[in-house]
Amino acid sequence: MYIAMNRFKVKTGSEQAFEEVWKGRDSSLAEMKGFETFHLLRGPANEEEGYTLYASHTVWANHEDFVAWTRSEQFRAAHRNAGSNKPLYLGHPHFEGFSAVEGA
Q1: What is the pTM of this model?
Q2: Rounded Cα gap, residues 93 and 102, in angstroms
Q3: What is the CATH number of the domain that holds 39?
Q4: Distance of alpha carbon 20 from its chain centroid, rounded?
Q5: Per-residue model confidence as pLDDT tens digits over 7-57
Q6: Domain boundaries, position 35
Q7: How far apart are CA 14 and CA 22, in angstroms?
Q8: 3-state helix, strand, coil in the chain (%, to 5)
Q9: Strands, E assignment, the chain
């Protein structure tokens, strides 16, 4: 199993707009080999720094299937307009990838 996460610092007051972008996106993840599940997660608000933490979270059968997704036409199509959403968050998304060591 491989878990891919992108963390976003969404500007305070932009949370609803950010969530709507994700809810309205064209996603073809379900047609990709090895894709298991997707979640958009809302984390804590950091009032001092002016953001709410979010994470996009996908689970894949293995790292190779995830890499195939990142090289696919479906990936390019899903991320084609991502730059237009940059005013909603602070900085760049932060990627983290994890391979399962143990699980039930």
Answers
A1: 0.87
A2: 27
A3: 3.30.70.100
A4: 14
A5: 999 999 999 999 998 888 777 899 999 999 999 999 999 999 999 999 999
A6: 2-98
A7: 13
A8: 35, 40, 25
A9: 2-11, 35-46, 51-60, 89-99
Report how many domains make up the chain: 1
- Residue 15 corresponds to which amino acid? E
The answer to whether residue 85 sits within a structural domain is yes
**How does DSSP classify residue 31?**
G
Using the predicted structure, report yes or no on whether residue 63 has a pLDDT greater than 90.
Answer: yes
- Read off the pLDDT band of 102 (50, 70, 90): confident
Domain assignment present for 104: no
> What is the torsional sign of CA 62, 68, 74, 78?
positive
Would you state the structure tokens that stand for residue 36, as one six-digit string?
């298991």
SS3 75: helix
**Can you read off the two tokens belonging to residue 52?**
């709410």
pLDDT at 98: 97
- The pLDDT of residue 78: 81
